Amino acid sequence: MMHEASLVKSLLEQVDRLAAEHAAVAVEEVRVRIGPLSGVEPMLVSLAFERLAPAGANLVVEEVPLTARCRDCCKLFELKQFRFHCSYCESSDVDVIEGDVFMLESITIRRVEPLEAVP
Amino acid sequence: MSARVITVRRDVQAAARSSAAEFRLRCTERGTLVVNVLSSPGAGKTSLLAATARFWSARENAPRMAVLVGDLATDRDARRLAPWTPVVQMTTGGACHLELPLVERAMAALGDFDGEFLFIENVGNLVCPASHDLGEHLRVLLLSTTEGDDKPAKYPKAFRTSQALVVSKLDLLPYVPFSVQAAAADAHEIQPDLAVLPLSALNGQGIDEWCRYLETTRTSILGQSNAE
């Protein structure tokens, strides 16, 4: 739990800063992407978020597959069983492109609309 | 009032990663290679570092080293290392992994260390430490022969993010059902470029190859960045 809590704290600091930058009056939703190599467990992230986030903010966790691109044949494929080989040409020269980081995807904020649009 | 979606698409640890990159650069400029040592509890991190210090202390013109050691509660590892090498204890107070601010504070306690190797002995755990960049140039994972050769696939992140696998407690190999080849093959499925270094800190077998690996790696990493 310690580990997820410290990352969720860092996530919430970033959300706060973004909310302030965009003159939000409230944060309604925080959307994150977590994959098999993100190093965090989705359920523990949700629990830490419930405890640490301000009331009213809702967390949405999108679980994404571990996706890689082969450097030899350039194809995209899903890595299964943590076997880091291209499923098309068996090359082991592959780059993970999704599913290996704990990603802040988006936030939904509430803000007061200006009475007139700024030209 | 209106709702608005702001697309961010940023790694939650991006700021921590960039602090780690700055720390790494400062160490590169001092000529210090930072080595983050990961393993499960009891795999022999402290014994390996003590054996490394002893090996070098017996040699003329040997590289200078220091150790920052992370522990949940005690200073036992630091006391074991102190006769052989400068060491600073980092007590995490129960946290399951080290983070960069702890490392930076411990580094300051070392004074103006500009030796060739700074080892960070992480908290014994193969899960959380894998997610935290401590500004290391080299991540070394220890797997002991008593743990079983099927561990790599169980801890993919730790293996995927390491550059070297030390198979420790080789002296126990006759008594345990462990195959260095099977462990290496399993690990190479996850990280094909992983260097595999079997050794025993107890009888010294493989310690010379390990130290040679460290020195070669230091030259190739720091030599390269100095040339850039």
Strand/helix succession of chain A:
HEHEEEEE
- The helix tally of chain B amounts to 7
The CATH superfamily of chain B turns out to be: P-loop containing nucleotide triphosphate hydrolases
For the biggest β-sheet of chain A, the strand order reads: 2-1-6
Biggest pleated sheet of chain A = 3 strands, mixed
Q: What is the SS-derived class of chain B?
A: alpha/beta
Largest interface (CB < 8 Å): A-B, 38 and 32 residues
Low-confidence stretches of chain B: none
The whole-angstrom Rg of chain B is 18 Å
Helix content of chain B: 25-40%
Would you count the extended β strands of chain A for me? 6
Per CATH, what is the topology of chain B?
A: Rossmann fold
Distance between the termini of chain B: 53 Å
Percent of sequence in beta strands of chain A? 25-35%
In CATH, the architecture of chain B is 3-Layer(aba) Sandwich
CATH level-1 class of chain B: Alpha Beta
Q: Looking across the biggest beta sheet of chain B, what order are the strands in?
A: 4-3-5-2-6-7-8
What does this molecule look like?
The complex is a heterodimer of chains A (119) and B (228). Chain A is of the alpha+beta class and 119 residues long. Chain A has a single domain (2-110), classed as hypothetical protein PF0899 fold. Helices cover 26% and strands 30% of the residues of chain A. Chain A is built from 2 helices and 6 strands. Chain A has helices at residues 2-21, 42-52; strands at residues 26-34, 58-63, 67-70, 76-78, 94-98, 103-111. A 3-stranded mixed beta sheet of chain A has the order 2-1-6, with helices on one face. In chain A, helix 2 links the parallel strand 1 (26-34) and strand 2. In chain A, helix 1 crosses helix 2. The longest helix of chain A is centred in the N-terminal third of the chain and has 20 residues, at 2-21. The relative contact order of chain A is 0.25. By secondary structure, chain B is α/β, with parallel strands linked by helices. Chain B has one domain (14-223): Rossmann fold. Chain B is 36% helix and 21% strand. Chain B has helices at 14-30, 45-57, 76-81, 100-109, 156-160, 180-190, 207-227, and strands spanning 2-11, 33-38, 65-71, 87-91, 117-121, 138-144, 164-168, 195-198. Chain B has a 7-stranded parallel beta sheet, sandwiched between helices. In chain B, helix 2 (45-57) crosses helix 7 (207-227). Chain B is globular. Chain A binds chain B through residues 2-3, 6-7, 10-11, 14, 18, 22, 25, 28, 32, 36-40, 81-85, 92-93, 100-113, and chain B through 1-13, 15-16, 94-97, 99, 127-128, 130-131, 153, 156-157, 160, 189-192.
